[in-house]
Amino acid sequence: APKIIGLTGGIGSGKTTVARFIEEFGFPVYYSDDRSKTIVNENEELKLKIKELLGEASYDENGLYNRKFVADKVFNNRDLLHQLNEIIHPAVRIDFENWLKGQTKYLVFKETALLFELKLNRQCYKSLLVTAEDNIRIKRVMDRDHKTYREVEAVMEKQMPERDKIKMADCIIYNNTNLEELKEQTEKVIFNIE
Ligand code: ATP
């Protein structure tokens, strides 16, 4: 079976960018956050559970997940957020396991924003953290998502502190400079995993 490397990082750290580089170097990446967005629209059992937890308005008239509604509901309610994760997480884990069965490389990567928060690192061979200084991350997200400094900072404040993630990570990529250096660092790190 392939070794699973958990790839993570806070908002704007560059984890998706690193994931694309990893794919360019020939390794498969499972995008947990992307997949979960598909799963909430496709899995009927999951849909029922979410509506039960957060209300019918969790889905629009076409049966599509109302991300804004759900995000607003759970943003300041840790308990609800936890319950929502308890519904979505097992479905994503099953989806990942099915994906894994089709993999033939010796290393595969699992990108997930909540690797440490959900203790998913325990199911990985190693964890790989992408990090950068707060100011740099905020600026990048402001440019990418057209948000204000304060809006990005508010999201960041809800996430696990960077220093905690740094303590737990097996490998760390510091993304404080340019994309060229990021790609070089990525290459070094992934080919040195043993
Ligand atoms: P989120 O969790 O918010 O989705 P992320 O960790 O996946 O963020 P990316 O989307 O990869 O982060 O990067 C955030 C933004 O910063 C993107 O627009 C990306 O192109 C840009 N970026 C990332 N790293 C660098 C870099 N070293 N130099 C310049 N731009 C960068």
UniProtKB/TrEMBL annotation:
Involved pathway(s): Cofactor biosynthesis; coenzyme A biosynthesis; CoA from (R)-pantothenate: step 5/5
One Pfam family here: CoaE
Top EC class of this enzyme: transferase
Matches recorded under Gene3D superfamilies: P-loop containing nucleotide triphosphate hydrolases
Chief localisation class: cytoplasm
Reactions listed under catalytic activity: 3'-dephospho-CoA + ATP = ADP + CoA + H(+)
Transmembrane is among the record's keywords: no
The EC number(s) this enzyme carries: 2.7.1.24
Molecular function (Gene Ontology), one example: dephospho-CoA kinase activity
GO CC annotations, alphabetized: cytoplasm
GO terms, biological process: coenzyme A biosynthetic process
Keywords linked to the UniProt accession: ATP-binding, Coenzyme A biosynthesis, Cytoplasm, Kinase, Nucleotide-binding, Transferase
InterPro entries for this protein: Depp_CoAkinase, P-loop_NTPase
Signal sequence interval, chain numbering: none
Localization of this protein: Cytoplasm
Stored CDD domains: DPCK
Keyword Kinase: yes
Residues bound to ATP: 12-17
Family according to the record: Belongs to the CoaE family.
Protein's job: Catalyzes the phosphorylation of the 3'-hydroxyl group of dephosphocoenzyme A to form coenzyme A.
NCBIfam families reported for this sequence: dephospho-CoA kinase
HAMAP family xref list: Dephospho_CoA_kinase (MF_00376)
Name recorded for this polypeptide: Dephospho-CoA kinase
Organism of provenance: Chryseobacterium lactis
High-level lineage: Bacteria, Pseudomonadati, Bacteroidota, Flavobacteriia, Flavobacteriales
Gene from which the chain derives: coaE
